[in-house]
Specification:
Strand content: 35-45%
Radius of gyration: 21 Å
Number of strands: 12
Distance between the termini: 34 Å
């Protein structure tokens, strides 16, 4: 009971039952953080001309996040935010493509980053945001950030980047999912 309570609430709240917001309801329009992943390994580079996961075979570098089906079912839309540094190295145009996959299928618009000049290398601070309004009726949903070297025009006629690298733990790389 809190009747007649005065003063400040301390940093620890104890008692029974424990505070449980599992059945809480929120007003329409409220955004809730439902997932977060921070990259714990250093970055790596690739010269792939097809989209690859940022971990390049090392799961602790992958910028992906899975939302369980039971959580997906609670919402009408999910907002995915990926934030990272991307290094692009080349002797001519230094460009790379990025996109977001949903359940291993390209889902968002691609985004081209870098410099379309004879710059030899560049670093880009990138935040990608996508809103998923067509959530599946069943099953977990995995959002994955993917990268590749940018090709020339027509697509694939030239490779503009020598190597591209998603920098990891050294640059506070993370993924957040809001609903």
């Amino acid at each position: 009971s809190v009747t007649g309570m005065t003063g400040e609430l301390g940093s620890v709240v104890t008692g029974s039952p424990n505070l449980n917001l599992g059945n809480a309801t929120f007003p329409t329009g409220t955004m809730v953080l439902i997932g977060n992943k921070t990259i714990t390994a250093g970055g790596a580079s690739t010269s792939s001309t097809t989209y690859v996961a940022t971990g390049l075979g090392t799961a602790s570098r992958d910028m992906d996040i899975t939302i369980p089906a039971s959580t997906v079912a609670l919402y009408s839309k999910i907002i995915v935010v990926f934030s990272h540094m991307l290094g692009v190295n080349a002797s001519t145009f230094a460009l790379a493509d990025t996109t977001i996959y949903r359940n291993n299928v390209a889902w968002s618009l691609r985004h081209i980053v870098g410099a379309a000049t004879s710059v030899h290398s560049n670093s880009n601070s990138i935040t990608r945001v996508a809103i998923d309004t067509s959530l599946p009726s069943s099953g977990d949903v995995t959002y994955s950030y993917r990268i590749k070297k940018h090709g020339g025009v027509p697509t694939g006629s030239a490779s503009y980047a020598g190597t591209i690298a998603v920098l990891g733990a050294e640059t506070n790389t993370d993924a957040n999912v809001l609903a």
